[in-house]
Task: structure prediction
Amino acid sequence: MHVAIYLPLLVAAVLGATAPHLSRALPPATATRLLAGAAVATATATSFVLGVLTFTLVAEFGPVARLGSWSTSRLDASNPVPDGASVAAGATVCVLAFFVVRAVVRSVRATLAARRLCTELGGEPGDLVVIDGPDVRVFALPALRGRIVATRPLLAALPADERRAVLAHETAHLRNHHHRYRLAADLAAAVNPLLRPLARGVDYATERWADEAAAGTVGDRRVVARALARCGLGLRHSAPGAAEALHRPSEPSRLVHPAEPSRLVRRVEALLAPAPRHRPLLVAGVAALLVVTMVAVAETQRDTEHLFENASHNAAVAHSAAAHSAAEGGLG
Result:
């Protein structure tokens, strides 16, 4: 437990540091699934170790020890976790619990808002809904019955091939349920802030996934790049009306995030370059980190069980000895 209990936190930091590179180097679909899965697995592991770190201190309180039937003195003597680390872990758990609850509440509200907006817009799942307004924008509205929403000025401004690319991009968001990957990564980042770069990486990878899907639909990567650049010049504000109520992780999947022009440039450059190739060594590296995390969790669980079994055994022996002494005193 001395080292293993801290390994999931180290792995989370390493994944956070490498997430931007992974999101750009890997094929978008692979990057999305890998980073989202890694975020969830690592968040689960770090939650476990933080819980263990906290409980090793809480377990030394008399009422808790009596409830668990273990010796507080023996537990204190054999506990390898410093009290300072346990206190810090407990404080961290309390703070993170607030952020997790807030993220869940926001997600629920966003989902309900998306469903209401889909109902208001009408149509069938996956339909294109054209709205009036001065803004030039398009976005996918994720929900069980999602819609693609575009303004008339945008559709009028795009040539036919670029308009097809834009709609294929948004359709890919809905068809591949990108909002679910984003939701999983965002909740994992709420559990462990070290994973926030992974959440941003998943967000970028889903956009690139939709870019590549659109390129496959229209058969020309340059057309998608032109449409992306044209929409990037036109998008300056978030979606209007009811869509403003939608917050990440279930907000509309817009073709361009106007607040991040550097990311737009990277996406256009990626479309003008050859399609990304598979990199099995990078995938294997992330998989190896996750294996290390799972092994560390298993080792921590084993050591924790041994720690409390040992303390419970000593408590049972002490109780038996006290009962024996009392019986002998009674006989005498």
Q: What stands out?
A: The radius of gyration is 26 Å.
